[in-house]
Structure formats: structure tokens, C-alpha cells
Amino acid sequence: MERNSQLVQGLLFGIAFGFLLQKGGVTRYDVIIGQLLLEDFTVVKIMLSAVLTGMIGVHVMKRLGWVRLNPKPGSWSQNVIGGLIFGAGFALLGYCPGTIAGAIGNGFLDALAGGLTGILIVSGLFAALYPRLRDGLLRAGYYGDVTLPGLLRVGDWTVIVPLGALLALTLFLLERAGL
Amino acid sequence: MDWLTASTWSPYAAGAGIGVLSWLTLLVSGHPIGCSTSFARTAGMIEKLFRGRKVEEKLFYREIPPVVDWQWMLVAGMVLGAALSAWLSGDLRLQWIPPKWEAAFGDDRLTRIAVAVAGGILLGFGSRWAGGCTSGHGISGTMQLALSSWVSACCFFIGGIATAVLSFG
Hints:
The structure holds two protein chains of two kinds.
Chain A: H1 4-24, H2 29-36, H3 42-63, E1 74-75, H4 76-93, H5 97-106, H6 109-134, E2 142-144, H7 148-152, H8 156-176
Helix pairs in contact in A: 1-5, 3-8, 5-6
Chain B: H1 2-5, H2 11-29, H3 36-51, H4 59-63, H5 70-88, H6 99-105, H7 109-130, H8 136-143, H9 147-168
Helix pairs in contact in B: 8-9
């Protein structure tokens, strides 16, 4: 059990996150599906500006020694197969595990009665299958917690600067194209 | 205070806000933003109600204990934060069928709920399989430049776009 102060911090950060998601419009099925049909680029605009802002900030804090980053380990089989299955669910449901919490707060009952039920059922099922998966299929093509700079054997900022420019350029071109 | 009651903000304002929030969660709490693991913990808590403490002995729940932690409270807070935001702009309402769904597939509630359950099953399975979701991999992981997160985030959208185009096409 984590300390109470941690739990209170989590709650307050969650309120801010849910507020931002709702104001961004992404608690709505129509906005998510509009993105996946490539008609409405709200989701991509929010994600890329969050990643751009976040990437610079967390790496400055890492450089200053204020925080330790914790990149998730993974494998090709884990991230490609899991990612594609996730994507299919994302399109059928029209919410993701984060925005579904916001959608429930917004009053969307398909998220509460449908999506949440499905996620909870399958999470229990996954826990039952996990011992057979962990050292088998999930390990195929394991690459661990490697980062892009680690993979390329360069410093963090050698990746951050061009990648940040690429994200900014993508946003600029989306606006220019009127999307 | 018009910005508080506005129905939507610029996606860049919302996105930059989430970016700054991710600095703060890491600096203050030492955790990156993430969501999907909390659903796995909740499933374990529910299973514990029926089967008791032996649920905690399962390999999965030894790694992901079925307890309320920082991220679980984050997800609970998200429900409240979205409700607050929607209430301030007058958008808080009960809705079974999203408008875009209704236009394409009709207004039958049972159909929508059945597809939402199926979507939830794939989403939940995929996020456990991939080790994260649109928040943990898509935002927090990509900003930390993790290879696992960039691969996952690309596959989320490849799978999502293909499924959406096929089902609406």
C-alpha cells in the first residue's frame, strides 16, 4: 500500500488529466473515431503536442538530476501483436483505457456498461493466461527497456532535437492542410 | 473565466497541458502517467471478493498486486476531472449512443453495448499484452523515447485505423 500522500497526489493529478482530456474533446467517441477515419486530427494534435512538451521537459529534468526515467521494457511480439489488438479494440470501442475514464465522467453509458465491462472481464482472463505467456510468446524478439538514443548509440539530445522538429513540422503541416 | 466554461480548448493547449502535467507527476510523485494497469488491478480486486486472498498468489497479481495505488487514484480522479469539466461547460449528460455511431449503425442500444464490450475485451487484452495503453506507451513512453512505446503507439494507430476504415467503409 502506498502512502496516503501518494494516493492524494494521484487523485489530484487525475482530476487535472481528466479535465484536460474532456476539454480537449477526446472523451467523445465521435472525436476518437474521427481520428481513426482520418477525418478529424484532434487526437494526433493533442498527443503530439503532449509528447513534444513532455519530451523536452522530462529530459531537462533528467539532465538536472531531478528525475529518473523508467522506459518500459518490451519485445517485438509484445508491442506489435499487443499494439494491433489494442488498435482493433480502440476502433470498436471508440475510447482507450484513459479516455474511457473521462467518458464515464462525461456520462457516456456505452463506456461504462460496455467498454469497462469488457476490459475488466479480459483483464481477469489475462491474469489466468499470464504464467503461460510470460516466458513464451511475450518474450519473442525481446529488446528490453532500450531507448531510441540507446539503440542508435547517441546522446539523448541528438534524438530529441530532430524528433522534436519532426513533431512540430507534422503539426504545422496538418494545420496547413486544413485538417 | 470563460476558458473554464468553454466546451473545448485548442488541442494544442490541452496537449501542452498534458505535457506539463507529465513533468509534474514525474517530479512530484515519481510516476509517469498511465492508466491501463489500474483496470487489471481492479479485475484482481473483484476476483478477490469472490475467491479471497489466494488470488494474490497468482503470478500476475504477484507482479501487479490488486490494490489501490497512485495510478488507480489517477484513473479515479480522471472520472471526476472529466465530470467537472463537462459540468462547467454544460456538456455533462447521460448518453447511450454516440452521434457518429448512430448515423452509421442505428440507435439500437444492445448492438452498441455488445460492440463496446467486444472492443473493451480487445482493448484490455491488447494493453496487457503490449504492456501499456495510449497514455503509458502513447504519451509517457514515447516522450521517454522508449523503443517499446514507439512500436506500440504506431501499432495502436495502424490497428485502429484499419479497423475503423473497415467497419465504417
